[in-house]
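queue> pop job 88
queue> type: inverse folding (structure -> sequence)
queue> payload:
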């Protein structure tokens, strides 16, 4: 997808795309949350998006996310942490993130345990055969979900994944949907699916995605990291 037009035009185009895909899937677009990924973008862009009605923002680097959350503390924003999470940074992320999309191992789950604070979360599934990619391998999915369910301070929303490069996105998201149905046997309330980015969110919606993580289709070309 290209990132032409003004910010408001790009946001409107994505909203229309979400509505169209939801209609094709027989779903209510209001049940789909679009998380705008603002990695490397300035806080001025986030303020502009806030003025356009956006409330859900995604970041994947803790230092950057923490700084933005502090600077934008005057706004009522829902921060989503979507990057790979280090155990030693987990508690700091929980302090500002309303949702963490990337639980992929027991050490991170244990680090997030709390008797006083609760954070919504997704377990990330690795849809590739490459163990270096983020996410738990498919055979270990249920075990990790069970660990989340018994850990205080975690509210499991469902599963998350990134479509592998080189695979038709809808087939990948169909596998994620099947994984979602599997975990609902042990976590009936974990019905959400975090999937779909700028180039494949329509396919994700057709396979049941409830949370989209969309960057450049809305924000435009991502600045080079400083």
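queue> result:
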């Amino acid at each position: 997808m290209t990132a032409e037009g003004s910010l408001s035009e790009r946001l409107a185009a994505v909203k229309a795309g979400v509505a169209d895909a939801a209609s094709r899937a027989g779903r209510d677009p209001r049940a789909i949350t679009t998380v705008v990924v603002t990695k490397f973008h300035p806080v001025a862009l986030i303020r502009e998006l806030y003025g356009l009605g956006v409330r859900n923002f995604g970041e994947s680097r803790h230092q950057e996310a923490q700084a933005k959350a502090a600077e934008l503390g005057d706004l009522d924003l829902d921060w989503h942490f979507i990057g790979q999470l280090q155990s030693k940074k987990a508690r700091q992320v929980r302090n500002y993130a309303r949702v963490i999309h990337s639980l992929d191992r027991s050490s991170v789950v244990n680090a997030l345990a709390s008797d006083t604070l609760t954070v919504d979360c997704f377990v990330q599934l690795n849809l590739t055969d490459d163990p270096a990619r983020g996410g738990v391998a498919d055979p270990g999915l249920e075990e990790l979900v069970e660990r989340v369910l018994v850990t205080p301070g975690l509210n499991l929303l469902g599963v998350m994944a990134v479509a592998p490069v080189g695979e038709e996105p809808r087939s990948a998201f169909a596998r994620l949907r099947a994984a979602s149905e599997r975990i609902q046997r042990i976590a009936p309330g974990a019905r959400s699916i975090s999937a779909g980015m700028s180039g494949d969110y329509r396919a994700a919606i057709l396979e049941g995605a409830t949370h989209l993580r969309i960057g450049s289709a809305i924000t435009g070309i991502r600045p080079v990291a400083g």
